[in-house]
Amino acid sequence: MEYAGSYRLEACLGSGGMGVVHLARSASGLRLAVKVVHQQYAADPEFRARFRQEVAAARRVSGAFTAPVVDADPDAERPWMATSYIPGPTLAEQVRSNGPMAPAELRRLTAGLAEALRDIHRAGVVHRDLKPGNVLLTDNGPRVIDFGISRPVDSDLRTETGKLIGSPPYMAPEQFQRPREVGPAADVFALGSLLVHAATGRGPFDSDSPYIVAYQVVHDEADLVGLPADLAPLVGRCLAKDPAERPTPDEIMSELRPPSYEADAFIPAQRRSVERPLAVPGGEQRTHVGAHSASAPGSAPEQKPSSRPAGKRPGRRESGEPKTAAGGRRQHVKWPALAIGAVVLVYGGLWAAQGFGDTRASSSAPRGSGAAETADVAFEPWLAPTIGKTAKRGTAPACSYTPSVSGVSATLLCSTAGVAVARLDPADGQVIWSHGSGGGTASVPVVSGGLVHTVLTSAKSARLRAYEKDDGTPVWSADVSGHRGGVHHAGDTVLLVRNDGRVEALNGRTGKKRWERPLPGHTDPVLALHSPATGHTYAAESSADGRTTLVSAVDPETGDLAWQRRLEGNLDPVGTEGGVLFLTSLDPDSMTDAVVRYDPASGDARRVPLPYTMAEAQFAVRDDTAYLLARGGTLVALDTTPKGKSAKPRWELETDVARSSGPVVTGGDRLYFSAADGQLITVDTANGSLVGRTKPRLLSGKLAFMSTLPAPATAPGRVYAGAPDGSVFAVDSENPATW
């Protein structure tokens, strides 16, 4: 399914028993979460009635503590509802990834959910399914979602006889005993169960059997061991068997008024998404540029000159500790009990900033060149605590690495909240030059036409900006607001898709237009991938029914088609190797179900099914082996040249990482990816074993949310990565066991 009403479905955010939630975008660019029911329920009259009730309930409670309803069509062939998209992990993901909440964080959650329930109940709605998976954690407090089984107090819709409606660990006794008499107090009981889970990682009534849980809820006392002493009595009252004995949301809020919780400690860092390069053999990149967190208004551009003469090498580290950018010992990060939240996948989107940051390096000699970057000089791990004075901590810097070519020095470029672009010395992490974002945000900086490119964004416009690589001098800028789908770098050419579907190409060195034309056969092309190895940029466009995809290979310098082929399935180009194009296939619920290997030389298209569908699978390929890393941490290595009709994975690995960056594969049998807590993890691609991981690098005492995790950047003998504490670090890839 490609569209719900007029909204194009771009990515899968999650799937449940009744439907799939997709990330979508309105005609004005507003990001939406669109729930589409499964096909098998669309013909069920009772289900349609329940879905209409969900839409009505969600509309009644739309406000500060829920996801406001934008549009819906419960009478469509497959009913759907669109709400505002709210980035942030669910409480279930947060606890699963980072463990129980700290006491003060738990108090803030309690107060926020009590406030949410107060507003929901004031609208005359009983949620009836409040649980960790239906609570989103945002920088403005928790949001309650999914009113699929909620019921207005004045509703005449009856629960279907013989069916248990709800989630047993979070259901009140009356939901089992008198389901038609359930009122607002049931939501308070669910809140108590949810808070026990947030504080301990388990529920107050725990069993593998829902029937035993139901018995415990009705007859047994709640297990409150592990709750903070000052919250346990309140939670115990929420879990009273008699609904009349439970406190109201107003009473809960009254007990938690300041100074009962310290708000300053729990304001999450602003969210961001980044241009996410997908590193695969041959250097091809996927460069959808997204919005990320804004720096404080009026933040000044900043540039940090070198603190030591160019070419001077720092002293060797002691006891295996990476050096900081200032030359000292590595700073040990004290990471909190509550780590940063999981990530909600975003796709595309541009915002822009006003004005250049205009400070340049004070050193007359450029850094980052010469012997410091040659292979015969021993590399020493380092840690740069920040990439600029204007950097906002709490989001991981996103970096790209360009190797030295024909005497041109290697380049390590990074961006983060508050810093539009910074050039670091790959040898030791010293900041050579940087520009503040001036109140806007920035994509991952890359090199194009010998210049450093980044997209600065604000709510009103988007500008592509180019800087001199050596000293950061601004060279040119272009307004890219009237384009959709992001900015795509294809070597020395910049490609954009206009709102009318025509493709426009700019010279990366001068910013001048090279060509503009429609792509034959396409009305709404998606530029998905550029491969330096083939010299082609790959565009794709799925048919309205999702059964086929038109794939085109375009010469970015001229706009000419190298080849075009319509392939079966809803496909997305994700990598190339040896002239072969690899695509992932999505099923009707936007789950990845196969890898397609297309050889344009022979015309052979081979579909290799996955052993099971994978949510939000990210891709890398090497030596005809596809590596797919799914949301939840499942990593699969799949041979794309199997004999026979079926393909068995070479290996499978559960990495225990709930949210991750995309994988990066290199020579030497290594695969790298970053985790949400700042860990850099490496896997042996020969056998699927974990061979190294760094320590978590969190912003202590803060909740932090990132829309997309930046992938690590690799270079011969080293790996560069950003962490949520705002640091950039480099480790020796030859010996990951010592990380």
UniProtKB/TrEMBL annotation:
Segments of skewed composition (Low complexity): 290-301
Residues holding ATP: 35
Coiled coil region boundaries: none
InterPro entries: Kinase-like_dom_sf, PQQ_b-propeller_rpt, PQQ_rpt_dom, Prot_kinase_dom, Protein_kinase_ATP_BS, Quinoprotein_ADH-like_sf, Ser/Thr_kinase_AS, WD40/YVTN_repeat-like_dom_sf
PROSITE patterns: PROTEIN_KINASE_ATP, PROTEIN_KINASE_DOM, PROTEIN_KINASE_ST
Alphabetical list of CDD domains matching this protein: STKc_PknB_like (cd14014)
Domain of life: Bacteria
Signal peptide: none
Domain annotation Protein kinase: ranges: 7-267
GO MF annotation list: protein serine/threonine kinase activity
Spans annotated as Disordered: 242-268, 281-330
Lipid biosynthesis found in the keyword field: no
Assigned keywords, A-Z: ATP-binding, Kinase, Nucleotide-binding, Serine/threonine-protein kinase, Transferase
Protein name: Serine/threonine protein kinase
